[in-house]
Design goal:
This protein is an alpha+beta fold and 338 residues long. Among the domains are: 89 residues, Cathepsin B, Chain A (Alpha-Beta Complex), CATH 3.90.70.80; 77 residues, no CATH class. It has a 4-stranded mixed sheet, with helices on one face. It has a two-stranded antiparallel sheet with strand order 5-6. Strands 7-8 form a two-stranded antiparallel sheet. The longest helix is centred in the middle third of the chain and has 41 residues. The termini are far apart. It holds the Pfam family OTU. This is OTU domain-containing protein. InterPro entries: OTU_dom.
Length: 338
C-alpha cells in the first residue's frame, strides 16, 4: 500500500483511484478520512458520514479494508444545524442505501434517500425529546408568520407556473362536467330524477309568484288607461291648460323668489288643492317675461255650458280659439286644394 496505493484502493474498494482522489480532494475529507479509516479498521466499524453543507460530499461510507467479522454500524455527521451520532442497527435503517459518486451524478436517488433518512431521524428525535410549551408556542408562531409571508409573496408575484396550474384545473373541471352530463343523460340515476323533481317544483312556485306580481301590475295598467281616457288633471295657474303630473311643479318656490309674478297668476288650485305651474310658464316667469299663452293676455278658455256633459279636457279641445276648431268658409272648387 505504501508503494502502490492506487492498486490497494482499486483492489479493496469499489471505486477507482481517480474517484478516490476526487473524493479526498473535497473540503474536510482528506485528514479526517485517514483517521476515521484507521478507527474503522481497528474497531471493525462501518461508519456513515452525512454532510448537508455545500462543498461537502453528501455521504461518505468508510468500512474496514478486510474483515470477516460482523461490522458495527455508526452514523454521524451534520444535518443543517444538527450534530448527531447514532448506533442504530442496520434493520432500522432499511431505507438507507449506500451511495457512490457515480450514482449521485447520474440520478436523483441520493437526494431522495437522504431526505427519507433525515425525515426518519428528525421524527425519532422529536418523539424522544420532551418539548416545553414555550418551544411549541414559538414554533407555532414562526410557522404562522412563515405561511403568511409565503402567501403574500405568491399573491404579489404570481408565477407562470401557478397560472398554468389554474388553467389545467379549469380545463379538467370543464371536461369532468362534460363527462358527468353525458353519463347522466345516458344512464339517469335516482339522484338525477330527484333533482328534476325539485327543479319542476321550483319552476311551479316561481310561476305562481310571478302571477301574484302580475295581478297588481294589471290593476296599474287599467288605472293608467282610465287616467289617459280622462286626460291630464293638473291645471296650470298661469295658462289655465291641463298637464300631466310630470309636466308641472308647485308654484310656492317661484312666489317666494319672485313676488312680482303674483299678478300674472290666476290663483287656481288643482289636484289635492295644490296650485301648480307648467314648466313652460315657469321658464318665462323666471326671466321676468309674460308667457305667450298666459290667461292674463286674454287667452282664457270659455266657461263650460251647463247643458254640456264634458270634462275639462273636452272643454278645452272644443274651444273656438284652437286652430282646428275655427269656422272657415268652404272652397268653391273642391279640387283647388287637392
Amino acid at each position: 500500500m505504501r508503494d502502490n496505493p492506487e492498486r490497494f484502493i482499486e483492489s479493496n474498494t469499489e471505486i477507482s483511484w481517480l474517484e478516490y482522489l476526487n473524493n479526498m480532494s473535497m473540503q474536510g475529507t482528506w485528514g479526517d478520512a485517514m483517521i476515521i479509516q484507521a478507527v474503522a479498521d481497528q474497531l471493525k466499524l462501518k461508519i456513515t458520514i452525512a454532510e448537508t453543507h455545500e462543498g461537502f460530499r453528501e455521504y461518505s461510507i468508510i468500512q474496514p479494508v478486510s474483515s470477516t467479522q460482523q461490522l458495527t454500524h455508526v452514523y454521524l455527521g451534520h444535518i443543517d444545524e444538527y450534530h448527531y451520532v447514532s448506533t442504530l442497527p442496520c434493520t432500522s435503517m432499511s431505507g438507507f442505501v449506500e451511495i457512490y459518486p457515480e450514482q449521485s451524478t447520474q440520478s436523483s436517488q441520493p437526494k431522495q434517500t437522504r431526505t427519507q433518512y433525515i425525515n426518519k431521524y428528525m421524527k425519532q428525535k422529536h418523539d424522544n425529546e420532551r418539548q416545553s410549551p414555550e418551544a411549541k408556542e414559538r414554533r407555532r408562531v414562526y410557522a404562522k408568520e412563515y405561511r403568511k409571508r409565503k402567501r403574500a409573496s405568491e399573491s404579489s408575484q404570481p408565477s407562470a407556473l401557478s397560472i398554468e396550474t389554474k388553467q389545467k384545473k379549469r380545463l379538467y373541471a370543464k371536461e369532468y362536467m362534460k363527462r358527468k352530463r353525458a353519463s347522466e343523460s345516458s344512464q339517469p340515476s335516482t339522484l338525477s330524477i330527484e333533482a328534476k323533481q325539485k327543479q319542476r317544483l321550483y319552476a311551479k312556485e316561481y310561476r305562481k309568484q310571478k302571477r301574484c306580481e302580475i295581478e297588481p301590475l294589471q290593476s296599474l295598467i287599467s288605472k293608467f288607461h282610465d287616467i289617459v281616457s280622462q286626460g291630464p288633471l293638473y291645471t296650470c295657474t298661469c295658462c289655465d291648460q291641463l298637464w300631466y303630473r310630470h309636466s308641472v311643479i308647485p308654484v310656492t318656490t317661484l312666489k317666494e323668489n319672485y313676488p312680482d309674478v303674483q299678478k300674472r297668476l290666476l290663483n287656481r288650485k288643482s289636484v289635492n288643492n295644490v296650485e301648480c305651474l307648467c314648466k313652460t310658464c315657469n321658464k318665462h316667469l323666471k326671466n321676468n317675461k309674460v308667457p305667450p299663452c298666459a290667461a292674463v293676455n286674454g287667452l282664457q278658455f270659455p266657461e263650460k255650458p251647463l247643458f254640456f256633459d264634458l270634462n275639462e279636457l273636452e272643454c278645452r279641445l272644443l274651444a273656438p280659439r284652437l286652430a282646428f276648431q275655427k269656422l272657415m268658409q268652404a272652397s268653391k272648387n273642391l279640387w283647388e286644394h287637392c
